[in-house]
Hints:
Blueprint: H1 13-19, E1 30-32, E2 47-51, E3 56-60, H2 85-110
Parallel strand pairs: 1-2
Antiparallel strand pairs: 2-3
Amino acid sequence: MSRSLKKGPYVDPRILKKIAGKKPQETGAIKTWSRACTISPEMVGFTFGVHNGKDHIDVFCTEEMVGHKLGEFSPTTTFMRHGGKIQKELEQARKEAEIQAAKSAKAAAAS
C-alpha cells in the first residue's frame, strides 16, 4: 500500500544529509539500514550499501529506480532451489551431458 499523497514519499533525512553537496564520483558506498527509504532524483548516481539483515548489498541508483524503495534491490533471503529427488537426478544428468560434450569437443580438437 502506498503512502498518502498528502504526506509524500518517505525519504530518510539522514541519507539526504549524507549526499548533500557531494558528487557521486567522490563518495564510496553510503551505508544505510533504511530499507524503506524511497529513491529520489537527488540519489541518482550514488551507490548505497543497503543492509539485508546480514551484510550490506551495494545498490547503484539509476534513473529507472526513482520512486522505488532501497530495500527492493537488496534481497533478504537466499533462494537455494526447488525440487528434491527428481530435481537432483535432472541436475546430475545435465552435468553428465556437459562432461560428454566437453570430451567430444576435446577429441575433435585433437584429431
